[in-house]
């Protein structure tokens, strides 16, 4: 019995050593593959949604070895931000999942452009709350659907503020900058070279100032979907509406690239649970 106990203990010790060795190896491989930065990446979900829509993307990054730190920023209807936990000092590539209580912009259903501007204050409050934890020199911003409009209005309203961190990367997923499906503006033709729409929606008009002010040190990735069902959309956002982001930034970004997701998995709500989108995000934000 005594020898058996020793054998079991030995197996356990060997197992622990193997796990530790693998974890050390995995971290070393990740360090070779991904940037090792303290820059936080903030995910902002869409209309009627929650931080659950961000989990698949955040966890894909964690499983790839990008980070070990994912925290949640809960924003109440008054804009107060509370975190489920603090970001540890010296955390590598931390991810912040924003969870908005006011996820339908209550009070702005008859004037969504004003609602997006109001939603931008939620984004700013998250950034300021992060700054109170650690003074970050830069942040990354990732939006899905309505989250993109809140993010772009945050940039429009706060660009040049020396008290806020610069935006290193912006990722737009299914951004309806010129309206939603069924709206003539959203489905109007665009200039394929410049992204300029023939007709401008009330959503895009306040953003025209960014054509002269969009930060020149920000890299931009614009991801949109086409279900290939004849609608030229992801079911909610026409491809042409998403592509007007190019017109908004007017060649000012440090870099700009577009990725079109095609097929059934390009449906609007599936884009935040899509392996191709995950790969594009990881490569763009963190790959060396």
TrEMBL record:
This is Cell surface protein. The chain crosses the membrane at residues 6-25. The lineage of its organism: Bacteria, Bacillati, Bacillota, Bacilli, Lactobacillales. Pfam families: DUF915. It comes from Limosilactobacillus pontis. Keywords: Membrane, Transmembrane, Transmembrane helix. It comes from the Bacteria. The keyword Phosphoprotein does not apply.
